[in-house]
Design brief:
Layout: H1 4-16, H2 19-26, H3 30-44, E1 49-51, E2 56-58, H4 60-77, E3 89-95, H5 97-100, H6 103-114, E4 118-124, H7 127-136, E5 141-145, E6 155-170, H8 175-180, E7 189-192, H9 197-208, E8 215-219, H10 222-230, E9 236-239, E10 252-255, E11 263-271, H11 277-293
Parallel strand pairs: 3-4, 3-5, 7-8
Antiparallel strand pairs: 1-2, 5-11, 6-9, 6-10, 6-11
Helix pairs in contact: 1-2, 1-3, 1-4, 2-3
Length: 294
């Protein structure tokens, strides 16, 4: 029978879609990780991945095993938890990098201080990619923006906090003239990638405020867009992140839009039933308490 280490190796490979990348995460050689996967497949009697030269993707057998294996590991890691007053074990969370620069970054720090026995593994990426990973079970949950589309019935999204979409432009540009010109000027617009969930909010903001823009670059990183604007290469619409010192930035103007304010809602995406709901419930309660105390 396969050991807990073998099961953890399987989950790591399912997340990374690569034996070598999974091996680096869990501290094995690629050869050892590959042997453990072969051992698991031999024990079960079926192959769990569709293999190509460049990647490995869970097949229907593998997908059906993710949640039961996660539950086995969670139960193992929870042994003795009835005698403890704190959370323990491992939770694998997807998170937008921008949420770590926002309110969720503070929550992570507080979780680690309150529950030192809890291991939080973070996977960076985009909201629309995280949805598939949460559904297939390679992520326990993800911190993502609200989807512009209807979600599948087996997942749920809980709002944690919201951030207004704001206009940012270089300090070299006069605030008075920039706002008065309604952004119809010589500065190009640096856009967040259109087909992402945050990209939809940018388009919504442009339409709601009847903005006239001259297209320039398109990126999928809020952080990179902010830096390009700081360098004077254009202006942008981004969410107002909590952990950036906007007011003291000597190279950047930030301005609320004159018309309708659009908010980026950030929340927790998870399956309606999974083995780490004790942790996700704590995260949701944390933000609810902040809202009540405001």
């Amino acid at each position: 029978m396969s050991s807990i280490k073998v099961l953890k190796n399987f989950l790591a490979i399912s997340r990374h879609k690569s034996v070598a990348a999974a091996a680096r995460e869990i501290g094995l050689t690629a050869a050892a990780a590959g042997q453990q996967l072969q051992q698991l497949e031999a024990d079960i009697g079926v192959e769990l991945f569709d293999r190509t030269k460049r990647s490995m993707t869970l097949n229907h057998h593998g997908r059906s095993l993710v949640e039961p294996i996660q539950e086995i590991i969670a139960r193992y890691e929870a042994l003795g938890s009835d005698f403890k007053s704190e959370l323990s074990g491992t939770i694998v969370l997807g998170a937008l990098v921008s949420t770590l620069m926002g309110a969720f970054g503070n929550t992570l720090n507080e979780l680690k201080q309150s529950y030192p026995g809890l291991e939080i593994k973070l996977i960076a990426g985009l909201s629309n990619n995280f949805l598939e990973q949460v559904i297939e079970g390679s992520l326990d949950a993800a911190i993502v923006t609200e989807s512009p589309y209807a979600l599948p019935q087996n997942v749920q999204w809980t709002e944690l906090y919201s951030e207004p979409m704001v206009l940012i432009y270089p300090i070299t540009k006069s605030r008075k003239n920039f706002v008065a010109e309604n952004t119809s000027n010589d500065l190009p617009f640096i856009r967040f990638e259109r087909n992402t969930w945050t990209g939809h909010l940018v388009d919504q903001t442009i339409r709601a405020n009847k903005m006239v823009i001259k297209e320039s670059m398109e990126l999928n990183s809020v952080e990179a867009i902010i830096e390009l604007v700081r360098q004077g290469l254009g202006f942008a619409i981004v969410p107002r992140l909590a952990n950036i010192a906007w007011e003291t930035d000597k190279k950047l103007h930030i301005s609320e839009l004159a018309g309708k304010t659009i908010f980026r809602k950030v929340g927790l995406l998870e399956r309606k039933k999974h083995s780490r709901q004790n942790v996700t419930q704590i995260i949701k309660q944390h933000f609810l308490s902040i809202l009540i105390n405001k």
